[in-house]
Amino acid sequence: MEGINSGLELGPELDQVEEIKQELEKLRQQEQDMQVLPLLPSGTILANLSLPDLLHGNGILKGMSMSSEVQSQLSKRNLIAVGGNLAVTGESGGGETTVVLRHEISSASSIEFMASAGLQSLIGLQTSRVLTANTGATLGLSMSLKDGSINLTNSWTRHLSESTDGNIELSLGSESLITVGWRKEDDKMSADGAIKIGPRAVEASVQYTRQLSSNSHGCVAAKVGSRALELQVGGGRKISKFSTVCMSYAIGIRGIFWKLELHRGGQKLIIPILLSSHLNVATAAGALIIPATLYFLLESFVFKPYYLKREKQKAMEVVDRTQAEVQQGRVAAQKAQRLLENVANRKRSQQVETGGLVITEAIYGNPKYMKKRFHPEEQKEELASQVFDVTLPLNFLVNDSLQLKLHEDVKKSGIMGFCDPCPGEAKHLLVEYTYHGNIYEVEVDDYEELIIPQEAHRR
Question: Model pTM?
Fold first, then answer.
């Protein structure tokens, strides 16, 4: 009782040796995957299609470009990257190959040697250094092997806040310009912008991406300058762990475009489709309505049903794999509840008589199934496999001050009389209670603090 009163009722059940080994192995495998992922080949295929050219009998493919890069870790501090690109437009084309050798001098600085052959034959040297905890700088020097021209670049980055970065880049050479940019990113959105100023051109660009759900996003981008004027609206949907499809609509001085994209790991397939080289209201409106309608139909009848079916299948696989573990946990929790039953019932009876704090119902488990407890009898079996009744242990934990407190940042499955009914899934705790004749309800996640009673919980 002294331990319970001091808040130790949330001590989780100790893992067995084999469980600890499995967790360590899982963490080791995740670390290896994170190290291997940047070393996988990355590349982009861009295919420019033109409907006006097709209607005039010139073929739909206007041009194509491909780029690819592969990295290899030579040693702990040395990395080599080999890449190339190829571009074809009409009857002309070209390409180049680039090799970059990177050496990490220390944890705060690195140096890169670069050589390129092809359309842009050059050699270069670049060094980067972390100056302070919030500031970094990069200095680069390159020389063209064709005409001997030299380009110098100098860039500075600065953490403006926890989620915002700013950068300034100065480039001197055949294409001298200064670029000032910023980027802000958090869990729900990302935004970035840049202003480029040079002797030949001035340009400003901005892009805003909003996370609409855990698997879909919307995006708005704009570009304006002496050589560019474009507005782009689109969205994307995550179809698997590593794959995303995107569809966007762009209108500008180059014409009206649809753009289709498929991202798979480090690989990208981008297909811009030119609909019209001339701007008019009817074409612009039709080009916007058609992809929006198409995306809505795909989202409603293809992506969402497929995703829900796949998620349900994964959930069933987890249930089958952890069935014995869950059953063992339920049995242990029920035994613990029988030990608490006499004290919990006595406390409840005393609170009922005085109009104090009484937990009328409490369930712990998958939040998707919380509301299904009111559904017909045929769903009771599915509900029972995803949630667990914890009304009795919560009544037991009501203290002499007529208060129930569950601590923050500690899994609630470790409370005596609780169990984890759905391993691998997010879990919530739903509590209904009465206090001085009033009815209250509150729902918290697995690691959130819970203090009752509170007037904010009143129905």
Answer: 0.68
